[in-house]
Batch of 3 targets.
Target 1
Amino acid sequence: MTNEEKVEAVKKWQECEFVHQFVCGADGCDGVLVPEINKGLNGGVYLLCPKCSYSQDHIPDMVYYFDFEHLSNLMSVIGVVQKAKAEEDDRINEALSEIYAPNTPIDDDKHQ
Ligand SMILES: [Zn+2]
């Protein structure tokens, strides 16, 4: 994998809404780290905080081999299931409110 490919992989990771972003490790800084190519002697990719210049050499290998497409497909399926469940819950709550307590709102805490 070239450094440029690694940079692309880290960017994908940082933009993915389903994984934990790499954020700055410096006290009180919440900067989102960006990948940079080290042009120095050893080369390689590292993470840099754009807010405070904190840098981190270690990038877990899984970032480079992560199957974003698979995760994205999985999350769409979960989204469809959650939406269907929410609609089902609405229908059940509506039916219950008509049967047991007309004009009385259902307590949401008891119907998760
Ligand atoms: Zn920082």
Target 2
Amino acid sequence: MANSTWLVVGSGFTGASAARVLAERGFRVRVVERRSHIAGNAFDEYTPAGVFLHRYGPHLFHTSSPRVIDFVTRFAVWRPYLHHVTGQSGDLRYPLPPNFLLLDHLLGERSKSVQQLLISSYGDGARVPLHVVESHESDDVRSAAQAIRRIVFTPYTRKMWGEHADNLLPSAQARVPVVIGYQEGYFTDSFQALPTDGYTAFFRRLLDHPRIAAETDREISLSDLPKTQPVLFTGALDQLLGFRNGALPYRSIKFRLEATRRRMTPSATVNYNDDRPQTRITDMAFTVAADPSSTIWVEETPEEFLCGKNEALYPVPVARWRELHNAYMALLKDVHPNVIVAGRMARYQYVDMDQACASALRIATDA
Ligand SMILES: Cc1cc2nc3c(=O)[nH]c(=O)nc-3n(C[C@H](O)[C@H](O)[C@H](O)COP(=O)(O)OP(=O)(O)OC[C@H]3O[C@@H](n4cnc5c(N)ncnc54)[C@H](O)[C@@H]3O)c2cc1C
């Protein structure tokens, strides 16, 4: 097998990590990318005004996987970076994930007794999914959890997914937990960092191998897929299969950029958990360690994905779409059993960069 050639469709974290491991194992790898650049959604670049920017929104790398850390640190020097997010509901601001500061604000004098119950149930510093707290035996704890849902989660979920929070899969609901204590910080992983010269430079080194040939500006369609050669596909399955069973919905984001000379946000990112259409704003000076006197704010407004009009960025985490996706998986297996499907779009599943990388390493090592 070591002399067969792999086709890897897509040059994001999944495709590029897999390509590298396959090449190091002796395979030839052809990487084909639809966009005009490598690195998928992690792509970053300098704007014409000379400000460094993550083109598809802020990308913060975090992982606790020793295997992923060993892999990514081979291709970049990483600068430690702890991400902080502030929630804003109207005039009220609080740290995210929500912690005891928000409880103090919501419950006043009753806060301390609820905090004691939470600590004795889950432990000081634990991070607990909101739906778990909502099923606590104490009425007071349950009603505090419901208040957190109303303020923090419900408006944001509606904007982000175009769905009511009750319709989301539990895994999506659990992404932002409740902190049992006053601890702050968005992630808890042991490795939280950014590549010092950016993700695109990291991807260039990843793909720089004599057995890898990478090509951009070329879209692979069903008829381009070889029948016998091994293929790793990281794009959208409904599109690949001609929407035969109907289209899967995706969410896209409209990014509004504002070059500025001021620092406005109290933390790198402010999430708008209220009725305005935008979901968040990020000051790139925090995340890319740029000179704050000439920074760029990135404001995000979610919108429906329309093929050919914008980019499909997020699969919608709702059960009925998982079923449709499963049907596409079965269809592809019938017509192309030689195709392995991986990554955020192809699996129709929210994954962070480290998870995309981890599954690519597994696939490419076992292949
Ligand atoms: C706004 C936003 C913010 C995010 N922030 C974070 C963060 O802070 N931390 C984090 O860990 N993760 C973050 N992510 C998630 C991260 O971007 C993904 O986990 C990661 O991109 C997954 O990599 P992938 O290779 O599976 O997919 P992608 O990066 O989407 O790469 C897939 C590539 O395949 C190409 N492609 C698709 N179909 C075809 C085809 N038919 N032919 C040729 N090429 C094709 C696409 O153009 C794309 O470049 C964020 C995602 C978004 C959208």
Target 3
Amino acid sequence: MISNRKYAPLSKVAATLSRLCLVFTVFAITISSRPAFAQQPINPGPPPFGGPRVAEFLVPPGSLGQLIALAQPGRIMYDIRQINIFGGTHSPFFRFIRAHEYAHLRRRHFVLSPQDNFDNELEADCDAAELFGWNSPEVQAAAHAYRQRLPPQNMPGSPGSAARIANLRDCGR
Ligand SMILES: [Zn+2]
């Protein structure tokens, strides 16, 4: 015969175990819902075109979707993995993409139809190419990245590598 009493300690153990499990579950959920790291403020120096600085952050991989960087009023975010692929925050590519994003900000490129976006991308590239020049490491790194990452032909709302590189060359002369 099994008495209730004999079982009492066991159910106490079970209760304790299930409490522990709950604690671990909550802990695991907390960890997994947190990005690999929070967004990390960076200070890459004075703004490329002068004027006021905006807040700049490295953000966890994938948080900008497919984008390498994104400018919003008052801030620029860079996908840390994408930036690292192209040499990190001290690389010529980073200086280019930073100038490109600052160009979006100073031109107030925020309200976007696909056609606006197409034009804005070329305009921001053009500003950065004018700043650095076609033969600079910055613009050459951008041309290399566009060749690697984009199809040559234009897409709806987004210029392809051929148009972007031709534009860099024209603007950087
Ligand atoms: Zn852009």
